[in-house]
Amino acid sequence: MRKCLALGAATLAAACLLVPLFGCSSDDDGSDDRILPPPAPDFATIVYRLDDSANHTFTTGDGLAWCGGFSWDAATGIITDDASWSGPFPALHDDGPAADGGHEADGETAGDGIWTVAVEVVSPGADWTFAYMPTKHSVDGSYGQALDPNWGGQATVTAGETGTVTIAGPDFIPMQSGCVQMTFVIDDTANQSYTEADGLAWKGSFSYDAARRVLTQDGAWSGPFVPLYDDGPWGAGGHEGDGAIGGDHKWSATVWIDNSTTREFEYGAIRGSTAGSDGAWIWSGANGTFAVTAGATGEYYPTGLTIPAWGTIDLLILIDLSSDGGNLPDPWAGTDWTGSAGIRGGFTGWQSVALRAFPEIGVDYYGFLLSEHIGPHDGLLHRGDDLVWVMELGGQEYRVDGAASNRMVMPRFLIDEQWWGGYDVLVQPDGDRYLTITVP
Are strands 305-306 and 179-187 parallel, antiparallel or unpaired? Predict the structure, then answer.
C-alpha cells in the first residue's frame, strides 16, 4: 500500500473513493502515478568582455553596461530574450572574479582594463541570435549612452548550449607610440545643419590610414582624407579628442602622426566625402598649416573651421557679355560667351556654377544670385565677409596676364531689402590672384 495507509481508516476509505482523480490505489503494483515536477533547465554562461587594456580610460564612475536584445534579472543573473532592448542590463566590472570578492568571471584580473560580466541564459531549443553594444552612464541597469554609436555586435547562443560563450565589444584604438596626437575640428554649433551622412572631412597634404588612424605626408593631396565624427573621445569608443562631447555639433577626429622627423602640412575642409574620398571644398581663406616637430609629444589642435551663423545679405554678381563680349579684354573679346559663362568661388564650394541671363538688368547680362543656390548647409552673407571667386568663360578661368580679370564684372548686395551696386572688385596681389571683395 502507498502512504495512504498513514491516514485513519475512515479517511482512507474516503480518500480511496477518489482514485479516478488522484490515482490512489489499494493495490501496490510497483507503479507511481504522481505528477512529477519538470526537470531543472540547463543553462549556458555568456561572458561579455570590453577590452580597454591599451588605454585604461574607464573607471567605475563611467557606469559601463552591456546592453542588447535581452532583459537581465539581477537576482538570478539570467537574461531572457527582449528584442525591444527595454532592459534592465548588467553592469560591467573590472574588480576580479566573484571568488575573490569581485563581479567578474573566473580567470579575470582586477584592474587590468578589461571590463566584463558573466550572465546565464536557459539553454535554447533553437539558435538564439541577439544584437548588443556597450554603453556608459548606465544607472541601475538603464541603457545610458552608447559608447560608440557606429558600432554594434551580434551574438548567437546555439541550440542546446550548456557551456560558456565569450563575446567581445568594440576595439579601442590605442595611441600610437612615437607619434603626436592631432585633432581637427569643424564647429557647426551655430547652424547645426550637418549630420554624419553629409561627409565632413579633413583634407590636406596627407594620406589617412583609417584602420590605424595614422596620417602620413603626401604633397599630392591624393588622400584618403580624414572623416569627421560627432561621437565623443577616441578613448571612449569614439573618434574625437580628449574631452569631446558626442552630439554637440562639433565634428572632429584625432589622428596620429609620426614624430621621427620635422615636417609641415597644409589642409582645409570638405563635405560630401565618403570613406575619406574627396568632396566639395568648404574651407575659408588660405590653406591651413601645421608642423610636427621631431620628438614632439602630446595633443595638438590645428586651427579648425567655425561655420558662422547664416547672414541676411544676398549677393548678385553680373558680367556684361553683350555685343559678343565686345567690352571684354583680349583675348576674350569678339566671342559669344552667353551660353558658357560660369562662376566658381568660396560661396559655391569652389564648384563651377553656370550663370543665367538677367534681361531685366541688360541685354546679355549674365549673373549669379546667391539666394538661388543656397543648399541645406549654406546661408546668406554678413557685413565684413571676404568673398573670393573667379569668373569662367567657355569652361576656362577668365584671366588676363595670369590674374583673374574684373573687367565688366559687377557685384551687387541686397541689404535691408535694397540692392546696392557700384563697388570695385579687387584682384588678389599674389597666390591664386582671384577676384575679391568685402561685403559692405
Answer: parallel
* Fold observed for domain 179-306: Immunoglobulin-like (2.60.40)
End-to-end CA distance of the chain: 111
Give the span between the Cα atoms of 188 and 377, in whole angstroms. Answer: 10
3-class state of residue 367 by DSSP: strand
Q: Strand 214-217 relative to strand 250-258: parallel, antiparallel, unpaired? A: parallel
- What are the extents of the domains in the chain? 1-36, 43-168, 179-306, 314-438
pLDDT in tens, 168-185: 988 776 677 789 999 999
CATH topology for the 43-168 domain: Immunoglobulin-like (2.60.40)
Question: Rounded to an integer, what distance in angstroms lies between the CA atom of residue 395 and that of residue 335?
Answer: 13
Q: Over the stretch 406-438, which tens digit does the pLDDT of each residue have? A: 999 999 999 999 999 999 999 999 999 999 999
- Say if CB 235 and CB 55 are below 8 A apart: yes
Is-contact 70 79, C-beta < 8 A?
A: yes
Cis status, amide bond into 88, omega within 30 of 0 = yes
Same topology, domains 43-168 and 179-306? Answer is yes
Q: How far apart are CA 229 and CA 200, in angstroms?
A: 8
- Residue 392 has which C-alpha cell? 569662367
Burial of 347 (C-beta count, 10 Å sphere; 0-12/13-18/19+): buried
Q: Taking the complete model, does pTM exceed 0.70, yes or no? A: no
- Positive or negative, the Cα torsion across 284, 382, 197, 144? positive
CA atoms of 103 and 372, how far apart (whole Å) = 62
SS3 157: strand
**Residue entry with cell 561655420:** 307
- The 10s digit of each residue's pLDDT in 107-136 is 899 999 999 999 999 999 999 999 999 999
Question: Which among 159, 139, 9, 127 has a CA at the least distance from the CA of 67?
Answer: 139
Tell me: cis bond preceding 41? Omega within 30 of 0 counts.
no
pLDDT of residue 381 exceeding 60: yes
Q: What is the DSSP letter of 172?
A: P
